Structures are given as C-alpha cells and as structure tokens.
Amino acid sequence: MKIGFIGGGNMAAALISGLANKLTPGANIHVIDPNADALQDLHSRFGVSVAPKIDAALTASEVIVLAVKPDKMREVLTALQPHLSGQLLLSIAAGIRAADLSRWANGHGAIVRAMPNTPALIGQGIAGMVALPGVSAAQRQAADSILAAVGATVWLDDEALIDAVTAVSGSGPAYVFYFIEAMQQAAQELGLSAEQGIELAKATFAGASQLALRSTEPVTLLRERVTSKGGTTYAALTSMEESGVKALIVKAIKAAAARGKTLGDEAGRG
C-alpha cells in the first residue's frame, strides 16, 4: 500500500511508526509538512519520502491521510485537488465533517473520518471511524488497517456520533491524566512524596484499566467487588456520589461533544 500523509505531527508520526516496514515499506509512505526538522526526523527513523509542500508524488498514493489542524483543512484540500484521482482520503482532524471535506475537495467521494487518541503514540489507541457511501470495501479495509496499526478501531454508521467519540475517547486521555493529578495531590496532602504519589496513581490506573480490559464482567461489578460497605473505598465513593462527581463527568463529556458539533458547524460555514 502506498500512503501519503499531509501533516507530520505527533499523531501522524504515531501512525507512521505503526505502519512503516510493518504494513508497508517505509519507502511507500510520502509525508508532506512545512517543518523541515519533522520531515528529517521521519525520514531518518522510518525511511519515508518527504516534501515541504503538496506535490505530484501524492498521485501515486492509494490512501492520503489528512493530519493537519482543522483550520488548515480547506487550504490543504484546495491545493490537493489536482492530485486526486480516486484515492481514499482519511481525515483524523477533529470537527471537520465529511461533507465539507468532500466539498473542499471538489466533490471527492472516497472519504473516511477517524478520531484516534494520543495513546496511539504507544500503540494503545482507539479510533472511531465512519465512511462516506463512496468508499469501497477495499478502501474501508485499508483505512481500518492504518488505524489498527496503533490500536483498536470502532466503526460507526452515523457520522454525527463522531462528536461523541471525540468527547469520550478523543479527549478522554486528558480526563484520565486529570484524575491522576488529583490522586497525586491527595497523596501528597496525606503525607506521601510527589514521586510516591504519582507512582501509586499511575500504577493503579494502569492495573485497573488492564483488569477492566481483560475481564468479561461489567465494570460495575468490578467496582462493587472493591467496595466493602463501611470500608475505605465505600467512604471515598460515597463522598464522590454526594459531591455529584459522576454527574459532573457526564456533563463535562457532553460539553466536549457539543463543542465538537459547534466546531463542525463553524468549519462548514467557513
């Protein structure tokens, strides 16, 4: 598979690290980015070909991954139009709807939207994905293979649900880091050192996540097994419930989803 990347930032680099010399030889990957240092790094690490601006080499790509900031997408697709001849466009930009991508690409119909997350940097990501009707079965499989190189994939039937994916898993790592920060702060206030607090918090999150992943039982049951009535865990969870922590988390995730919809509306008007 020949793959083009427009954008060579962190997420693109994560995908390339999972693809180069695994799914396809590094020489089959072509990366466009104005940052010369980023290009040199990707070339030296993975053997990919590079260029500072969109060029004819993308014409040979079967898949072109759009890994640029949302506010640059229209400009990029306008410049890309002369090089499109049926390739799959795989967008990993937040908020930009497939219909707008198609419109800016002069009606190009082979488009998949994906929302990966930053654990892709260590091969532990997950991506929600949706395809336009113009995407063939082979192109859908190609898109899945690219994102599966750095984690799991979840296909959606309704593009509107991408905003929910963005809110839950796209932004989700930040919620986890926020909770870890709170655990570290509590540990310090209880007399542990900062180093001890962060080590305990990180290991607890990692272990609990793996337990949830490997278990066939609902996470509610896993939580209940740790919670003896009248015990320490019970005291903590009762405090959280009385403070409305769960409701606030749900509210926050819904706010993220609403912001994703607003970004899509604004981009489409633009």
Structure in words:
By secondary structure, this protein is α/β, with parallel strands linked by helices. It is 52% helix and 13% strand. The protein has an eight-stranded mixed sheet, sandwiched between helices. Helix 6 (162-170) crosses helix 11 and helix 7 packs across helix 8 (194-214).
β-strand percent reads: 5-15%
Strands, count: 8
User: How are helices and strands ordered from N to C?
Assistant: EHEHEEHEHEEHEHHHHHH
- Oligomer type: single chain
Shape: elongated
Could you tell me the radius of gyration in angstroms? Answer: 21 Å
* N-to-C span: 34 Å
**Stretches where pLDDT falls below 50 for ≥5 residues?**
none
Strand numbers in spatial order across the main sheet: 3-2-1-4-5-6-7-8
Class per helix and strand makeup = alpha/beta
On the 0-100 scale, what is the average pLDDT? Answer: 95
Report the sheet with the most strands, covering strand number, pairing sense and barrel closure: 8 strands, mixed
The residue fraction in helices comes out at: 40-55%
